[in-house]
Amino acid sequence: MYAILDIETTGGKFNEEGITEIAIYKFDGQSVIDQFISLVNPEKEIQKFVVKLTGINNAMLRNAPKFYEVAKRIIEITKDCTLVAHNTAFDYRILSTEFERLGYDFNRNTLCTVELSQALILDQPSYSLGKLTKSLGIPMTDRHRASGDALATVQLFKLLLEKDVHKNIIQKSVKYYDRRIEKQKIQKLIDSTPKTQGVFYVHDSEGKVIYIGRGKNVQTEVNKLFLKQTKRAIKIQDRANSISVEKTGNELFTNLKYNLELETLSPKYNFKKKRKPLLLDFNNDNFIIFDKGREVEEHAVILIENKEVFGYGFTNLAYQENKINVLKNVLTPIEHKELSKSIIKNYLNKNKVQKIVRL
Hints:
Layout: E1 2-9, E2 19-27, E3 32-39, H1 48-54, H2 58-61, H3 67-78, E4 82-85, H4 88-101, E5 109-112, H5 113-120, H6 129-135, H7 146-163, H8 169-173, E6 175-176, H9 179-192, E7 198-203, E8 209-215, H10 218-227, H11 231-239, E9 242-247, H12 251-265, E10 287-292, E11 299-305, E12 308-315, H13 317-320, H14 324-330, E13 332-333, H15 337-350, E14 355-358
Parallel strand pairs: 1-4, 4-5
Antiparallel strand pairs: 1-2, 2-3, 5-6, 7-8, 7-9, 10-11, 10-14, 11-12, 12-13
Helix pairs in contact: 5-7, 9-10, 12-15
């Protein structure tokens, strides 16, 4: 027995989202034998981009039942069922979080139709629900509404059951989640990151960097990463074991550090951007760029020598400013000179830095 579901949420920070709509179809492998569909008052504002995506707004939910009013029905319809959804990790996390707020442990076996589709329907350009159902000729109405998406998932799951001719792939794919452990791990990773500008590195259990990110507020960017439900983001979330952060102090250093580290480390889950070749030189042969540092009395420094980027780093320049040899000892030399030159040149064309000193 299966409970095939879809949930729409308010959006927002990890584990702070609220449910706005839920649809559950109880499926016996042949046909739907029960169903539950309802809007839900999340008792919080819906993010604007979610309103645009789903069409569900705050006014529509004002008189809708709150989660505690539908919780018993959800428990009843999913009892002794395996939960099935297109990206079950998301729907199950949201559902179990709501039950935790009520002091109830909601534990169900789960199946993910994304994973099953990748195993049973090969070589698809996309495994998103909309594109996959379209390529398979499965009709879909009310995209990004719980009932429409859940009904499409029912039809997709029927097809997957037929394609699993030896009846072993689906059986082996059933998972029992104690989502509390996983959520605690992710929340701990988010809480461990500072609310500062910089570059962050996601490490796997062996310490290898599998993803690099950046932002004006690292904690916000990490939170966004763990909220994403793309195939790539889910893999990062599953493999993330620790996160390290390097403060940068300013946008130029953030861009420079991020792109240089991508070139050096080549993390598995980052997309590598192709850059156009830089045709123009710097306007001056030798100069120093000063920008905001990580701390109040610190400066971020880039040294350009003979129209090439020598290096970058952080220092108090009261003493080193006119002593190039001393400055060179402080700075980290840059190997990827064309890449760094392109980043710095483009940045200077569009933005202001604190100071430029020509030598």
